[in-house]
Amino acid sequence: MPAWRTISLWMDQLEETLTPRPSLEHDLDVDVLIIGAGYTGLWTAYYLKRHAPELSVAIVEAQTAGFGASGRNGGWLMGNLLGEDRLLADLSAEQRRVSFDLLHGIPDEVKRVIDREGIDCDYRKGGALYCAARYPEQEATMRSYLAKLYAQGLNDADYRWLSRGELAQQIRVAKPYGGIFSTHVATIHPAKLVRGLARAVERMGVQIFEQSPVIQWQPGGARTAKAQVRSRWVVPAVEGYANTLAPLGRYQLPVQSLIVATEPLSPTLWQAIGLSQGQAFSESSRQVTYGQRTADNRLVFGARGGYEFGGRLRENFDLTDSEVELRRYLLGELFPQLKNVQITHAWGGNLGMSRRFQPHMLCDRQHGIALAGGYGGEGVGASHLGGRTLADLILQRDTQEVKQPWVLTKGGLDALKAWEPEPCRWLGYNAIIRSFVYEDKTLANPDSPPWRRHFASRLAGFMEGFMQ
Questions:
Q1: Number of C-beta neighbours around residue 89 at 10 A
Q2: Residue 65 in contact with residue 7, Cβ under 8 Å?
Q3: I need a surface site. Which of 32, 220, 222, 280 has the fewest CB within 10 A?
Q4: With a threshold of 0.90, does the pTM exceed it?
Q5: pLDDT at position 1, please?
Q6: How far apart are CA 267 and CA 411, in angstroms?
Q7: Parallel, antiparallel, or unpaired: how do β-strands 252-262 and 343-354 relate?
Q8: Phi, psi at residue 356, to the nearest 5°?
Q9: What homologous superfamily is domain 4-73+190-248+356-412 in, according to CATH?
Q10: Angle 238-185-278 (CA atoms, 0-180°, nearest 5)?
């Protein structure tokens, strides 16, 4: 049996045996074929069967449910989308409010489903703390971000500024400058959610075939090593693994995020840290740090990972000493008392990044293709919205989900913007990341002169502009 339990802390904690489902051994005719048993594929199947139980739906999965990002992520269930500010910029104030309400409702809708289906995935809606917590420039950045949110029509019921004292009531970091609290975030146990969702759709009549990688796909079906599937609709729900299904890799590149988890911490340490209500937290730097307190009192902490030349998938997620130590350093900057705590798990995963740095949900009725992706590290909630939206698009339901600016219904795959060829994107990615690292080191050093701090921030901001 494959070593799936070693994928992440989350998969390691599952009490089930992880016995693989049968592989696809015979040809199949279905209404909808879904490629990939991760969040996007499973949510699509769930809502298809919920609204049209007569449909025949099959999922083929190269490994097992939860092998990809769905079993490896940081456990943030966000009521947000990457790039939502740009996506909603041209809408009227009323339209923006409708879109924000749709996004902000994601955690609550997931809660309704897991309650209905009896999925125990450690759901806690404690909100998220976006902390200015390592150097003073972060406070100005966060206040500017909050002003932009309010300019879009949001208010303190959505995002609220926390003074140093208010922040300390929820999380106690070494260098508090304040922060933003959002109510629209929950935390979950990712592997329990994906595995429970797989069982739920099976009860609804969806067939799931594991250890059945697709070797060719096209409108009307797909082929595995042993069988062919014919279908009216194909949903390639592969997100960070888009380069395994040409030509999707032209539009969505795999990048990596890397995560560590501590041993269970003592009540004394947790009293010193806070996070008593299931809050997620992030530190406001371009290192993209994020964390949560798990149900068994570990601290899970992640940060930006990397990009492989040519958009290759990273297969080996045995983190190097330097990768672990960077995350330990960042964690220790926030919580000095954890500098020497034992790290019991270290892992990572591939996630999908679109060229526009924003998600897409696409429906090509002419060719019977529906897909969603480009979540860019915010995929737990975005994939749920993606699955709901794809189901509505396939079933031609007139809902708010299908009317959003991230939904593409004309032009097929050509509606997506392709990535530049190598070595342009590899050189560009590394130049951008180096500017982020330089900024972080400069600003984290209190002895850096003002001119250098200003230069580092301007350079990183300029380079970040290329990612928009």
A1: 11
A2: no
A3: 220
A4: yes
A5: 59
A6: 56
A7: antiparallel
A8: -85, 0
A9: FAD/NAD(P)-binding domain (3.50.50.60)
A10: 115
Rounded CA Rg of the chain: 22
> pLDDT, tens digit, for every residue of 351-374?
999 988 899 999 999 999 999 999
DSSP E strands, 248-339? 252-262, 280-283, 290-293, 299-304
**Structure letter (DSSP) for residue 411:** S
Q: Are 404 and 269 in contact (CB under 8 A)?
A: no
The per-residue pLDDT for 433 is: 84
Query: H helices of 214-334, where?
Result: 267-273, 321-334
| CA neighbor of 39 nearest in space, from 245, 253, 195 | 195
DSSP of 138-189: HHHHHHHHHHHHHHTT--TTTEEEE-HHHHHTTB--SS---EEEESSEEE--
The total of other beta-carbon atoms located within 10 Å of residue 324's CB is 14
Residue 467's pLDDT is 62
- Quick one: pLDDT at residue 468? 61
Distance CA 240, CA 254 (A): 5
Check for a shared fold between 4-73+190-248+356-412 and 124-188+254-354: no
Is the CB of residue 463 less than 8 Å from the CB of residue 435?
A: yes
- Tokens encoding 276: 């008593």
Domain parsing of the chain, residue ranges? 4-73+190-248+356-412, 124-188+254-354, 424-465
Q: Is the dihedral of CA 32, 38, 44, 50 positive or negative?
A: positive
DSSP-derived 3-state class of residue 280: strand
Query: What amino acid is encoded at 215 in this protein?
Result: I
SS3 content of the chain, % helix, strand, coil (to 5): 40, 20, 40
In CATH, what is the architecture of 124-188+254-354?
2-Layer Sandwich (3.30)
| Whether residue 304 has pLDDT greater than 90 | no
Residues 69-88: tens digit of each pLDDT: 999 999 999 999 999 999 99
- State the residue for tokens 């007139």: 398
34 SS3 class = strand
Q: Is the pLDDT of residue 266 over 90?
A: yes
